[in-house]
Write a structure and sequence with these properties.
Blueprint (H helix, E strand, L loop, with lengths): L9 E6 L2 E6 L4 H7 L23 E2 L7 E2 L10 E2 L4 H16 L15 H9 L15 E2 L5 E4 L8 H9 L5 E4 L6 E4 L15 H5 L5 E3 L13 E6 L8 E7 L4 E7 L11 H5 L11
Parallel strand pairs: 1-5
Antiparallel strand pairs: 1-2, 3-4, 6-7, 7-10, 8-9, 11-12, 12-13
């Protein structure tokens, strides 16, 4: 007996003057990406279910309030403006508010340049010291040997929570506290190093700010643009996870590792793949 395949209904809309046709139910954020239009977002990533908590991805659809594009479905005949003055003013104001609470960073400290909030602040010309009242004092957590947690830099986007729950199925990270004291927590608000965290580093890859970052292992962390990228395969088990080593060209030393997208691991890594590559530098190797 032949199986009838349900017909996919398409909707047509205009995004920044570009006509786009997508299946019904597609979000504006996904439709814009398919059309080559980037909409900034801090709480969303294509691998996670959208939650619309950061509001950085708002767009103008001609209604009284701006719509969060990561959760708003496309409608037939809809007209979307992703860069109108109203939209840009909203994003600038939100970026300024988020930057007010960001911690001071030592200028000597080096990172992998993954801070998406700082990139937005640079785009809008917003300094850490701005007109918005800020409050510092949330704790630092250095209990994990390879991951550092700075709760002051957290914007409560929940990307680390969804990475831990939905991607890795470890279910270690949640929330604790109320109001301004709210922050992410590991298990029952234990230090990360004392929790049931398996140190896979998926939360590090997910975090859009400096709240959860890698610690230097061999050499100081540096932006990818200063390092050579070497695609490889993790040798620890039979899965054969694809990864990319970021290597100091002069020292010929791995600085950090990242998962690479392929069917086996879909950019994910375990603790061995992300942090256990020091064997490659062992003097005992033939």
């Amino acid at each position: 007996m032949a199986t009838t395949v349900p017909e996919v209904k398409l909707v047509t809309l205009a995004i920044d003057g570009v006509s786009v046709q997508v299946p019904e139910g597609t979000t504006i954020w996904d439709a814009a990406r398919e059309a080559g239009i980037e909409i900034p977002a801090l709480c969303h990533d294509s691998r996670y279910d959208p939650v619309g908590v950061c509001r950085m991805c708002v767009v103008d659809i001609g209604q009284r309030v701006l719509a969060a594009s990561c959760v708003r479905a496309c409608e037939d005949g809809m007209t979307v403006d992703t860069v109108s003055p109203r939209v840009e003013k909203q994003r600038e104001m939100l970026t300024e508010m988020l930057m007010a609470d960001q911690p001071e960073v030592d200028p000597k400290q080096t990172t992998t340049a993954d801070n998406e909030l700082l990139a937005l602040a640079e785009r809008y010309g917003i300094e850490r010291e701005n007109r918005m009242p800020g409050e510092n004092g949330r704790p630092l957590d250095h209990s994990n040997p390879v991951i550092a947690v700075d709760h002051q830099a957290c914007i409560m986007c929940d990307r680390c929570v969804r990475a831990c729950d939905d991607i890795q199925s470890n279910e270690v990270i949640g929330r604790t506290g109320k109001g301004y004291t709210a922050r992410i927590a590991f298990d029952l608000d234990d230090p990360m190093g004392n929790s049931t965290c398996v140190t896979c580093g998926e939360c590090v890859a997910a975090c859009p700010t400096g709240a959860i970052t890698n610690k230097p292992i061999t050499l100081p962390l540096r932006p990818r643009s200063e390092l050579a990228q070497v695609d490889s395969v993790c040798p620890y088990c039979g899965v054969g996870c694809a990864l990319t080593y970021h290597v100091d060209p002069a020292e010929r030393t791995i600085v950090f590792a990242e998962g690479r997208d392929q069917p086996g691991n879909q950019s994910r890594l375990c603790v061995k793949g992300r942090y256990g590559w020091d064997y490659s530098l062992s003097p005992q190797r033939l």
